[in-house]
Amino acid sequence: MKIFDIEQLAKADKVTIEKQEISSTELMERAATLVFNDIHSKLNGAQIPIKIFCGIGNNGGDGLVIGRLLLEHGYQVIAYVVNYSNKRSQDFLLNYDRIKEVSNNWPSSIKGEDDFPEISEKDFIIDAMFGIGLNRPLEDWVGKLVRHINRSKAFIVAIDMPSGMFADKMPNEKRPAIKANVTITFQSPKLIFFLPQAAEYIGDLQVIDIGLDREYLAKTAVNKQLINKPEAQLLYKPRINFAHKGDYGHALIIGGSYGKIGSISLTAKATLKTGAGMVTIFSPKCGYQILQSTVPEAMVLTDENEETLSNIEFDLSPDVICFGMGAGTSKETTAAFKDLLINTKKPMVIDADGINILSKEKELIKELPENTVLTPHPGELERLIGKWKDDFDKLYKVKKFSKEHKLIVVIKGAHTIIVFNDDLYINNTGNPGMATAGSGDVLSGVITSLISQKYEPLIAAVFGVYLHGKTGDILAEEMSYEGLIAGDIADNIGKSFLDLFKKEMQSEGN
Ligand SMILES: NC(=O)C1=CN([C@@H]2O[C@H](COP(=O)(O)OP(=O)(O)OC[C@H]3O[C@@H](n4cnc5c(N)ncnc54)[C@H](O)[C@@H]3O)[C@@H](O)[C@H]2O)[C@@H](O)CC1
Ligand SMILES: Nc1ncnc2c1ncn2[C@@H]1O[C@H](COP(=O)(O)OP(=O)(O)O)[C@@H](O)[C@H]1O
Ligand SMILES: [K+]
């Protein structure tokens, strides 16, 4: 799914109105009716107090339409107009009159702190103060109203965006925004919804297709994509009937140290389970017996050193090399990694201590082959690119790093983001059950395996992250978030392949 910028969405509204020959009022009615339908299907007529906070622009107009429809269906509704300005939009004014026809009262007006209503924990709040039109900081009393609503602990549904949130700036103490339980957004999610620092403001995300002009949406180029099943299906390369193991490549996994052999065992298992033809593991000597018994399908080569990597020599020609899990960052290992980089120019995946070594020895970064995939978690990323001010700054820095070194960076987390040049691929699978030791090692194996099978490194990263998260989702249904461990993900990657083309009983939400 494309993720559009605010300007592109505003343009899409305009184009839709022209091409579909509808008024902006009709488009608002359409959008707000879809939100109403959703809320109605969940509340099912429940007589809970609903308080709608409407701005005076079109987001406020949406709120008024939703309020009118709720009133017409017998709900207890109080609509408030937050009078932060006198510049009311036309569609706001029209719907302001229309709601009065149904309620027989004008909505209550809030002009300052004295007008703030009491909000109880049991209220159901609809936040329609600001949407994508917010373009300057909230006035002091409006910020206080936002805090007042947040403090109430009532259940909050935000329309299009949580009010106070800018599309390109993180909310914070000084820049308050509504902390919604659910955000119902129109047509396209906004990038900020997927950034970790925005999570507490967005709650559960729902995207509603309001029928904006298909042609405009299709032909408008974006550099941000949300990766769901339809996008992942397009990346899959079917296997050939007459294939032999050579067709799916030979992956070399290098890592491990005394007490951390399990990590490469998990990576190797995941590499095989994702379909690589052959896997060889290179580890310190102490890994030999463990690896031969935990992953009998893999071949094992060992370093001359018992406990840590010191000299990486192998007499084979792998299609891809994965380096770093459990390797440590000792002097010997750093030197061995350096030799490896200088002497081998195979496609690479670098994880964990591989990234830590690059962070300490920055000049090694230029030895990485183009399109190498790096898979840092937040701590590793910070060591690599330095501290960031907020998640937007983080993306800016990673894009710069990716362009400068021609590398693919997988920013792991709840919505893992794959960065290549200025392009962002935001993954929409995965769950908190995957926050468990070793699940990153499994991801490295999945990506390595896809490269071994001749997927382009960027595709391997995007598709691999999707499959890894999807496997976690399928398993969480069977065994709970808590019960899920990394080995389960490695063992069951196949389920995510099967799921790719399984017919859904009902359409998948986001
Ligand atoms: N344009 C369309 O056809 C549609 C728009 N829709 C809704 O319209 C919203 C966008 O509406 P608007 O563009 O009217 O903007 P908003 O309703 O988001 O913002 C209200 C207005 O307040 C002004 N403003 C911005 N920051 C302010 C501040 N800090 N203090 C005081 N005033 C401020 C802006 O000039 C803006 O026009 C979307 O988020 C969506 O909810 C939907 O109804 C779908 C269709
Ligand atoms: N809350 C979450 N939602 C989705 N995916 C998650 C979540 N927490 C962790 N993950 C995924 O689990 C993996 C954890 O990797 P990492 O932190 O490197 O773990 P380890 O070092 O133990 O292997 C990453 O792929 C990450 O995206
Ligand atoms: K809003």
UniProtKB/TrEMBL annotation:
Its EC number is 4.2.1.136, 5.1.99.6. Residues 9-218 form the YjeF N-terminal domain. The gene is nnrE. One of its GO terms (biological process) is nicotinamide nucleotide metabolic process. AMP binds at residues 412-416, 440. Homotetramer. K(+) binds at residues 59, 127, 163. It holds the Pfam family YjeF_N. Binds 1 potassium ion per subunit. This is Bifunctional NAD(P)H-hydrate repair enzyme. It catalyses: (6R)-NADPHX = (6S)-NADPHX; (6R)-NADHX = (6S)-NADHX; (6S)-NADHX + ADP = AMP + phosphate + NADH + H(+); (6S)-NADPHX + ADP = AMP + phosphate + NADPH + H(+). Bifunctional enzyme that catalyzes the epimerization of the S- and R-forms of NAD(P)HX and the dehydration of the S-form of NAD(P)HX at the expense of ADP, which is converted to AMP. This allows the repair of both epimers of NAD(P)HX, a damaged form of NAD(P)H that is a result of enzymatic or heat-dependent hydration. GO terms for molecular function: ADP-dependent NAD(P)H-hydrate dehydratase activity; ATP binding; metal ion binding; NAD(P)HX epimerase activity.
